[in-house]
Amino acid sequence: MRLTRRTFGLGAAFSLVAGKSIARMAVGSGTLTTVSDGYLVLPADFTLGALPEADRSMAREIAGITGDTVETPCNLTLYQDGERTILFDAGSGANFMPSAGTILDSLEAAGVAPEDVTDVVFTHAHPDHIWGVLDDFDEPLFSEATHHIGQDEVDYWLNPATVDEIGEARASFAVGARNRLEAISDGLNTFSDGDTVVPGVVARATYGHTPGHMAFMVSDTALIVGDAIGNGHLALQKPGWASGADQDVEAGIVTRQALLAELADTGLLMVGFHLPAGGLGRIEAAGDGYRFLEEAS
Ligand SMILES: [Zn+2]
Hints:
Blueprint: H1 5-8, H2 12-15, E1 21-27, E2 30-43, H3 44-48, H4 53-63, E3 69-80, E4 85-88, H5 103-109, E5 119-121, H6 127-130, E6 146-150, H7 151-158, H8 162-165, H9 171-183, E7 189-191, E8 196-198, E9 201-205, E10 214-218, E11 222-226, H10 234-237, H11 249-266, E12 269-272, E13 280-286, E14 289-294
Parallel strand pairs: 4-5, 5-6, 6-7, 11-12
Antiparallel strand pairs: 1-2, 2-3, 3-4, 8-9, 9-10, 10-11, 12-13, 13-14
């Protein structure tokens, strides 16, 4: 099967289901649900800008990009095991993009109030993953939750030099991340590669997209990959190609290729933050690359 934008239902079709919880299954002793935070509208160059000119028209075709922008879905993951209600990433909030920040509607559809969330676990501190952690009064939205993030990720975003070194296009990311991390610093739990973050959730260093990006294995059954596999098209069909979304492009390639090979070998369930159909599925080898098999919800 040839994989196209149409096959994966990216973009406008996805926005029709934004605001709903759309994929759910039993994992370990609990239930894993992906909950939509809407979608992003990004400059096409954000995806294509790291590629050599010669590859860009093929990349546009694979990614289904016809204009100057690309739409990408945002899937947060909710894991409920009776004792805990764990939210992986907090979404964009109200101030990043009008098309994103729908997490409260999605949680409500899943029967979860913000104060029910016991733990918020971050893959990384980009705007679409952490800006939603504060409410309209800049107080923690998930008021009863413990917040967890990788130590290397915190160190990077709290470093005062980051805003000057990250480049103009991402300077607002640095300001926003630091602001959020400072606001949730009370009781913030940090962890490193291999640590058990909360019972049943183990951190996996997957650096490259950001300097401290983490994936999470849930109950030895499902791998939450965040943005280490950053989309449902180029990241799968051309995993060795540079992604402009990765802050360290070379490390991003190494991480992506290793994860995809592992997921295809093991058949593990996975959740991709920016993958289609809620991001819940499995990876299968296909030609020189891979394809995403949606898990029926
Ligand atoms: Zn993202």
